[in-house]
Amino acid sequence: MPLMKTELILVGKTNNKHFQAGIDDYVGRITHYMPFSITVIPELKNTKSLSEQQQKEREGEQILKLLQPSDHLVLLDERGKEFRSVEFADWLVHKQLTATRRLVFCIGGPYGFSSAVYQRANERISLSPMTFSHQMVRLVFAEQVYRACTIIKGEPYHHE
Q: One digit per residue, pLDDT tens: the chain, 160 residues?
């Protein structure tokens, strides 16, 4: 499988040190299988004077600045396509073989994504019909990418 670069863009740093330790652990594991990195967009300053819409638009501008025209952008969004873990692994293999140079996943801020980011996105996926904090989603997503890597390699981490 060609090793396309995979990136996860996050809005705001992970504040919970336990979540961050778990994320760091999974990122270290993932990089044994494929190039994987996380880019953190700094939290906006002085948000008290901004509406939710203005906050989403400013965060959206920061997200869009990080993208190259050839990137395949996948938003983690509650209205996205849901996968079982094995299906996500198959989807990831397909993207590795057919998408362009970079596969970019994005977890938005507390209010979600701007309309400009939705328009730029190639697709959306959902980790669950349940709602998680945007901090928790980071850990769950990192674990699922690691799980997909082990499924692809036929390793025993995942059990049917």
A: 456 899 999 998 888 999 999 999 999 999 999 999 999 998 887 777 888 899 999 999 999 999 999 999 999 998 999 999 999 999 999 998 886 779 999 999 888 999 999 999 999 999 998 888 888 999 999 999 999 999 999 998 877 6
Phi and psi torsions of 139, nearest 5°: -70, -45
How far apart are the C-alpha atoms of 68 and 65, rounded to whole Å?
8
Q: How far apart are CA 20 and CA 151, in angstroms?
A: 24
- Burial (CB count within 10 angstroms: exposed 0-12, middle 13-18, buried 19+), residue 124: middle
Closest to 93 (Cα-Cα) out of 154, 12, 160: 154
Beta-carbon count within 10 A of 150 CB: 17
Assess contact for 59 and 114: CB atoms under 8 A: yes
Q: pTM, whole model, 2 decimals?
A: 0.93
| Crossing angle of helices 134-153 and 85-98, rounded to 10° | 80
Identity of residue 71 = D
